[in-house]
Structures
1.
Amino acid sequence: MASKPPKGDPVQDAPQVTEAQHAAAGLPAIGHTLRVAQKQMGVRRTALTLLRVNQKDGFDCPGCAWPEPEHRHTAEFCENGAKAVAEEATLRRVTPDFFAAHPVTDLAIRSGYWLGQQGRLTHPMYLAEGADHYEPVPWERALDIVAEELTALDSPDEALFYTSGRTSNEAAFLYQLFARELGTNNLPDCSNMCHESSGSALTETLGVGKGSVLLEDLHKADLIIVAGQNPGTNHPRMLSALEQAKRGGAKIITVNPLPEAGLERFKNPQTPQGMLKGTALTDLFLQIRIGGDQALFRLLNKLILETQGAVDEDFVREHTHGYEDFVAAARAADWDETLTATGLDRTRIEEALRMVLASRRTVVCWAMGLTQHKHAVPTIREVVNFLLLRGNIGRPGAGVCPVRGHSNVQGDRTMGIFERPAPAFLDALEKEFGFAPPRHHGLDVVRAIRALRDGKAKVFFAMGGNFVAASPDTDVTEAAMRRARLTVHVSTKLNRSHAVTGARALILPTLGRTERDVQGGGERFVTVEDSMGMVHASRGRLDPASPHLLSEPAIVCRLARRVLGPKSATPWEEFEKDYASVRDRIARVVPGFEDFNARVAQPGGFTLPHAPRDERRFPTATGKANFTAAPVEYPRLPAGRLLLQTLRSHDQYNTTIYGLDDRYRGIRNGRRVVLVNPDDARELGLADGSYTDLVSEWTDGVERRAPGFRVVHYPTAPGCAAAYYPETNVLVPLDATADTSNTPASKSVVVRLEQSTTD
Ligand code: SF4
């Protein structure tokens, strides 16, 4: 199997490489932000739009889920947030004429970057069976087509309802309600591919599958450990929080296979001092081998146990369970094995221990570098062990901080977008809406792809996102998608998933965050939940990109009325007209949302309760915080191979490609690059600037090849390589997933590098 670079695309991937940078943000970021924004929106619209991002009466940034501080600056956004806004508020349009000029076969050979640059979708579009062109279709007919296919299924479980993290709380709640009234829990979502491992580990150990810290906890911390995360690109305003923590005396340890500019120095564009000199953020950099994190935290735990007075014994006695088994496992940790697993030297681990012991309040932050491994769940459980040992849960300035990606990915899960809903949630839904929700589990992303591949799922409906680009094993996923009877995408912009279709396909254009949402004669707002459990309103102010757009709640309500008909007692028409009535129902179904409408009307919204943080109460099976004692795992590397992690460039947000540069890493005008440690490269005979194919090795014996990557000598950890996704998703086998969470193991792919087969 091989994924080829797009041929005939006007966007030519020709990487140039210069020095990597050692500081993030500053003047270059401002210049870049303004250039990108003005190119897409023009000067006036840029000013009008950007000044409303993340303001209390404005709209929520459609980028990541980083929270806003209580006191906001006039410009409360980062470079990547501005890019996300510019892409949505762009003046460019994809009209029916565009589709007349570009058949699907043409769209299928274009790069994701080119597709995204064409602008906002303006009309519902339909691809009939056997046709090569999407054609405009009235909304009524488009929804009839979806209803036809859904009602023709032998079972509701033959339908899949995917959600991306942009979807608002109101739309997500309605969407899961519709799917469950139809009779399925098939609600795969982008969480399945990112923080599912965090949710699994935290639910089991702490009883709440979310982070336990608020922004002010970061500001108060003595020590912040940032593991497997690159905030400078993926959550840029986190750098301001880290800077503030440093000003308060905090130390920062970063644990990552690559050095990242944002964690080295932050030039805060909000202050003259920041712009000039910036703040050095990292005090200790542990350049860990990919996948060595569990071993590192296990050894730190052993060393804490061996240090007189280091364990918070009162906390352990009062609040935890499973301590003895954990202690036995931790005491067995072995220095030599840890040094092999982590690639670190002893002195740096000892230095880390000194910093850990000097800290009374410790926060551990992490992202995909921890969650996308086979042993991701035990790794995060080991992080929890580490924090429990010194009582760092439920203490101000301390806790777990899984940093979430897409802006409402956490809120969507809170609203019930989950293939394995808790019985209590279904009970509440049943009581409120008077129907019997299905109790059997549905399909997550990986299982949904298998179901499509095996002909067991026939309708694929996506509320946002770019499913085929985001998913692993690209060729398998695309072939699976092509077996569907109908694929439907509710989208703002064109992407690859519109070119890889079932027998019939629909594109349903929807409002963006920046746009005014008028329903039932009045302007409506929606709500979102950020990475730290803050819920707040989001109000767009721009005129919609086209008069033919519908909001996501309106699409769901209209579809539900068609599909469910009079057997549904849910007031779909009322919900479409007034989202406040949806919030009233959410308030009665979802714990923590009591009095939702009143509380979200407060500027800045409200914070959801979090029992471990607020009361040191742990709603787990044991009623305590659970220590765990899993065997230590780490990837083993055969000779002559490298361990590849997929990652994002600085000109990218998830699968959306804003440009072909990765400024901080010194890469320009191209994405097909593989970053290889110079010593490894020399050993493998790979000169800097040479071209290679990446071939992954997996137990199924299938050859997965990503051809034509420029080798870049880069200071990655020895034995480790890195390359961008979605280009390298082709290398990640569908069956290579994390234990328990089933998250694709995209951060530990064994590859060999072969002479390039492309010219
Ligand atoms: S940090 Fe995230 S939420 Fe904030 S402006 Fe940047 S992309 Fe948007």
2.
Amino acid sequence: MIIIGAGAAGLVAAISVARKGQAVILLEQNSKIGKKILVSGNGKCNIDNKYISSHRFHGQNPSFIENVLEGYDFEVVQKFFTSIGLALIEGKEGKMFPMSLQSSSVVELLEYEAKRAGVQIICDCTVTAIDKKEGTFTLETSQGDKRCEKLLLASGSPAAPQLGGSNSGYAFATKMGHTLIPRHPSLVQLCSEETWVKACAGVKVAGLAQLYANGEYITEKKGDLLFTNYGISGLAILDLSREVSTRLASFDYCELNLDLMPEFSKEKLTNLLLKRVEEGSDKPLILWLQGVINKKLITIILKQSKFKAREEGELNRKEINKLVHSIKNLKLSINDTKGFQGAEVATGGINTTEVNPHTMESKLISNLFFAGEILDVDGDRGGFNFHFAWVSGLRVAN
Ligand SMILES: Cc1cc2nc3c(=O)[nH]c(=O)nc-3n(C[C@H](O)[C@H](O)[C@H](O)COP(=O)(O)OP(=O)(O)OC[C@H]3O[C@@H](n4cnc5c(N)ncnc54)[C@H](O)[C@@H]3O)c2cc1C
């Protein structure tokens, strides 16, 4: 078997197939294997999630996802990593990490085990074309032609091209008759043309972001909101980005409604502010508000609440209500994402109705297999994308 792509899926598949006694060659265009694993989880590698459930994965064919995951939960992945000598520990929300908290240990142990199992790893080898004749695949590569009986496309998605993200696998597969579900960047930062965000660049709040498309409420996520000079980032934003990305692609108008103090209900916040007035605030308004909210956000809150500029004096209840509304409903229009360059994953990919979920073999071309992000499956943040890469790689050896 030849495997194109020494990323998460390709490495696990290579080890599993080689352990079954088959000869395996692993081709990688980068000079090093596992580049995305190395940078993942800020260098700590959020390798999996303890709470695997099909609703944490997305694609146009949910039954394919359910079938791939059936019997391939976190424990199966943990067993595999134990077999290569990697111990795991649990972080928040079921997130799993290597006990070393170093992604390099994941890559180095995978590489060692692959070589020990007899896998031939060839780096700096880009596959440029594939042809199949009389049961043999011929691969044109930057290091000459290579032939095999079985071929696994584990070449990932276009996300993060700086780390090897590429479209090449899709081109090979579509040439062989497969179809593609459109790909969009996901787990990606969002861009806004509104100028005020630039002035707030660097401000981070624990907030709530609600997404509206064409004025209609879509969904919401809680977590960090980080204002930047291009728009907005932070964990809540990454979690919303899949929806934003696909909607912007259909030319929908996207707007975020930001609650900067979600832990305070409207009433609780109103009471807090009223109490501060009662306690006698003769301070200038901006200084008074600084007691509860980041200074850089105050100007925009006052502007969006159409607050008349004034320096001091007691606030009345109506004015407090306006402020509360603005703090809990700050509007930010979104016109773009940071694209594949900024994305951790891509939505879409090879149409999974054309792939056997138990063996990952193509239903159209015998002895052609797929694993990992090349397929129309993407997961939530929290280790789910690696989970799919590992288990689809393991299934190839079935
Ligand atoms: C910055 C960042 C952080 C991330 N953090 C996490 C995380 O903490 N947890 C998590 O679950 N997921 C995370 N992800 C997502 C995760 O890395 C991917 O979902 C996963 O790596 C997909 O595995 P894969 O094997 O399908 O593809 P990849 O890992 O992308 O591997 C594909 C390989 O194929 C090679 N290739 C492509 N075309 C060719 C060709 N023509 N010839 C030869 N080689 C080729 C590429 O160079 C690449 O090495 C992160 C992604 C990024 C970008």
